Amino acid sequence: MTVDTHLLTVTKSGSVIVLTMNRPEKHNALNRELGSAVAATLEAADADDVVSVAVLTGGGSVAFCAGADMADQMDPERRGGAERAIAAAAAFSKPLIAAVNGYAYGGGALLAAACDLRYGSPASRFRFLGAAYGLVVGASHLPPIVGSAKARELIYTARTVEADEASAIGLINGGFSGESLLTEVMAIASAIAENSLPALRASKQVINATTGAGASWEMERAYHRELFGSEEQMGRFSAAAGKVLNTKRAGADA
Fold this sequence. Notes:
It is a single chain. By secondary structure, the protein is of the alpha/beta class. The protein has 12 helices and 11 strands. It has one domain: Alpha-Beta Complex (2-enoyl-CoA Hydratase, Chain A, domain 1), CATH 3.90.226.10. The strands form 2 sheets. Strands 1-2-3-4-6-8-11 form a 7-stranded mixed beta sheet, with helices on both faces. Helix 1 runs parallel beside helix 3 and helix 3 packs parallel to helix 4. The longest helix is centred in the last third of the chain and has 23 residues. The protein is globular, with a radius of gyration of 17 Å.
């Protein structure tokens, strides 16, 4: 079964559901509509006993997800799309796999980190941009994945992590060619789906409890909300948004 919408394509193959974020012209940035669609689809899949595993990926060949849509973030009436999607991914009780087909920056990196497994291609790259924008992004989910010291480095510096390094530090579980990424991830998802769903859910709950993911995620969200909208944070974010807009204009004029 395939359901096409303007912003999200949902495909179901047996007990595996695939969500493809479909804003390639915006590098799959999470605006209010896309973030809400991802959240609603994950919540419905979590309640569907036929679904055992979910796969999340990006449309196009450039980006998995560029994070929160900057235009929406500047508009108080439209904020929250990225947070809804990330919160739904973090709360998903079944195995959730990210097929990181391009770059994952900011909220996109956090969305990938909120998944249980991440697989990439040579085009995959990550950047946890929170500190550069005056926010907390990834401090809860990244340490259990790459270790405390490396997580501190990536969050404090907000630098880009290329595919080779991501593989070396365990940020991705494995890498495949861009052409075969989704096929390989579907094979992994199908193998997982053959196992007991109650056991998978229980295993995930125990792992989350062991790593403290739940409590630290709530702390991160609280700090994120506290910092968002401060004079410093809005200044940093506005400057970053201006750079992005200027880059796009320069490209259009070239």
